[in-house]
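Here is one chain, start to finish.
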Amino acid sequence: MSDVILRVSNISCYYGQMQAVKDMSLEVRRGEIVAIIGANGAGKSTLMKSIAGLVAPRRGTIEFEGAKITGAPANRLIRKGISYVPEGRRLFANLSVRENLELGAFVEKDNKKIKDRLDEIFELFPILKEREHQRAHTMSGGEQQMCAIARGLMSAPKLLMLDELSLGLMPSLVEKVMESVVAINKKGVSILLVEQMVQEALEISARGYVAQVGRIVREGTAKELLDSDEVRRAYMGM
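Its structure:
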């Protein structure tokens, strides 16, 4: 079995006539955390949506576990083991935490498996157990972000894609959320992470890609990117 769980090869994506992604390529190996960094408008979220089956690429290929999945619908990709946590959390505000989590397991019909996953989630995020019957919109931003990640985990993914986890969070909460990502990865879940907080993202990642204006312009180990004067000046204000 190949070490590469996800391979994206030269994909291009458009919104109407506007090209958002231009010949992007990347890969995620099994058990890795990989970060995609870059400014707003770099095409990072569009790339994630194309992998998740929400935007169909016009050119290029996407392979998951060696099988071509280019243009496959999102519900099929969830069943294959890809879970996408979009920017902005997108929780069902008036539903309880538990109801939001159960919706994340809609592809699973075995009630025992759903209960077991809930137990695992509550062990990973104890605060969600405390808030189990609370409506999602009444929680803090950090708690809502944890709920969004947890909902993504309820489909038992092999690859978890996380888009802008830190958005709107205080620095102390960002650290907690990043710690939870590391804990999830240690359970064997491969992770693809889009994040504007570059240092925090690279510190927990094995490798990274730099996106600019719809293209991947640089890649390397997380340490190589953290040590790069160009990356530090452009994205970390150093």
